[in-house]
Amino acid sequence: xTNTLHYLAGFGNQHLSEAHPGALPQGQNSPQQCPxxxxxxxxxxxxxxxxxxxxxxxxxxxxxxxxxxxGYAPLAQPWLKTGAAEGETVAPDPxxxxxxxxxxxxxxxxxxxxxxxVNGDPDAHVGMAAHLYLATSSMLRSAFVNADGEMLxxxxxxxxxxxxxxxxxxxxxxxxxxxxxxxxxxxxxxxxSRGYVCENYGAAMRLPELGPIGSNGLANPRDFLAPVxxxxxxxxxxxxxIKKFGGSLWRAEQDHTPFNVVAWHGNLAPYKYDTAHFMTIxxxxxxxxxxxxxxxxxxxxxxxGWANIDFVIFPPRWMVAEHSFRPPWYHRxxxxxxxxxxLGQYDAKxxxxxxxxxxxxxxxxxxxxxxxxxxxxxxxELAPHKLDHTLAFMFETRYRLKPTAYALQGGQLxxxxxxxxxxxxxxxxx
Length: 430
Ligand SMILES: O=C(O)Cc1cc(O)ccc1O
Ligand SMILES: [Fe+2]
Fold this sequence. Notes:
Layout lengths: L6 E3 L5 E4 L20 E6 L12 E6 L10 E3 L19 E3 L15 E6 L9 E8 L6 E5 L3 E8 L2 E5 L2 E5 L3 E5 L5 E5 L3 E8 L23 E4 L8 E10 L2 E9 L4 E6 L4 E4 L20 E6 L6 E8 L2 E3 L16 E8 L14 E4 L9 H9 L5 E3 L3 E7 L4 E2 L1 H5 L21
Parallel strand pairs: 9-17
Antiparallel strand pairs: 1-16, 2-19, 3-4, 4-19, 5-18, 6-25, 7-8, 7-28, 8-15, 10-13, 10-15, 11-12, 11-14, 13-20, 16-20, 17-18, 21-22, 22-27, 23-26, 24-25, 24-27
Enzyme class: oxidoreductase
EC number: 1.13.11.5
Cofactor: Fe cation
């Protein structure tokens, strides 16, 4: 992973890129014969008739079309779960998981996926799953295609090189990657690597509306980077294609690389984004605003404002609110909240929530700062204060999240999480 990659800037742009000059047809998408003996293939991420603002498709020009592949056979991956049907029934208690240790032996990104929570149904294009990945080895001649959902990858430890059909992305902790549903990709690691994945069965992630914020701010489109076209030099030779399709994994072989796209154009593209570019907005007067001000990307549902998923970050920022309790308030919401921590401390749980850990506060499950955070924030002198060296995030969804059997029995569930609020004694002084 030594060579520096080049990118195309701009979320949702109509990009175009050639890895070999002249590979892109001019003036049309599907000429009788494509330049350089390439095959044209269309990959669509939205119905053909979806409104223009949400239509997604790219044309790829490749050495062989992706239809040249053997038949698929089932592949076991017992820790990868899909949709509400594969979740467990649990009491409405808050749940938290300690960081999962990385395995001693070799385990690649796909084998290392561990589903923690699920909702919805990919066949209905509704809902999501939150997975951890625990990877110690690279996918070499193996590619993954997820027909069930888009993959939002949030590295927590270790840099990843993600090779996709449209080119390569280098992604390190603090950055995120977004891989469109149905696009082949593989993940190479640089050492033991851990992180989170939001698998989105619903509408593709887009930038949130900005309303009164105006035309700039939060995640700016130019900071999303798509890859330039790239094809694998070692074309011939056995390649494994692993497809997630209808909640199961399937495996096929082909005698050439699927990373054989010499040129492409369109607006269906993978992206990387560095969260350091997020223009954070907060209170410069008093009170703690709703966390929706930290939305990076959103997958809308069919009801305006009720997201299938909001991807929200809690990045380094100044806290300046006067005469205010600055951490999150105590709350119970109709939306369900899965949280992770990439680095540092989260202000509502400075000690108990560890980088690589996770928490689930489901619909109407009360939560908020632990006793220690409450005591501190209620009495601290309110000078301007920089919350630094921190990055927490939330996958927030309108559909209740169900933990998997692995999440409940895999060993990282904290038995006494709710004790962190036990110290909130009655202080009523009439
Ligand atoms: O519960 C949490 O920690 C996430 C969160 C943060 C915040 O600032 C306001 C509401 C909220 O759910
Ligand atoms: Fe919350």
